[in-house]
Amino acid sequence: MATRRYWLVKSEPGTYSIDDLERDGTTCWEGVRNYQARNFLREMKVGDRLLFYHSNAAPPAIVGLAEVVREAYPDHFAWDVKSPYYDPRSTKDAPVWFMVDVGFVERFARPLPLPELREDPALEGMELLRRGSRLSVQPVSKEHFDHILKLARQRS
DNA sequence: GCCAACGTTGGC
DNA sequence: GCCAACGTTGGC
What we know:
This protein is an alpha+beta fold. A six-stranded mixed β-sheet has the order 2-5-4-3-1-6, sandwiched between helices. It binds a DNA duplex through loops.
C-alpha cells in the first residue's frame, strides 16, 4: 500500500468554508484553474489528508482537516458556459481541468492563524508561508503536517 | 481598498 | 523565445 500523502487546499470561506464541508460531509473540489495545482490534484489518492485553509479571511487560517474520497476526474464545470469556471479549452474528449472529491474529517477547535504559523520555526520552508505563494493546492511534508495537527490540539 | 507577486497571453 | 501588458490571488 502506498504511503498516505498530505496536502493543503485553500478556499475562501465566503465561497466554501469548513463549516460548509462539515454540513455537506463530502464535496467535489471544482474550479482549480492552475496547471501546477491541477497536477497535484491528479496525484492525490483516496485517504490522503488535506489541511483546509481559509484564504481571504481575517485572519487567514488553517481551520480543519479533510480527506480525499475520490481520485481525480474531469471537472465538468469547465464545460458549463454559465459557470464561473467555464473554460472552452477543456472538452469532454480532452479534459484540461480535473477535480477530486473530499470528505470532512474535523474542524479544529483552535484555528491556526497565518501570522502564528509564520512565527513557528518548525514550519520553516512550508509552501504556504513562502512570500507571494498563491498555489491553491500544495503538498505538505509529513513533518509539517504532524506539527500542525499537534498545534491544533494544544490548549491555548 | 491597496498593491506585491505571480501566471498567462500575445505581439514581435 | 523574449518580454510587456494584463488579470488574478490573497495578505495586509
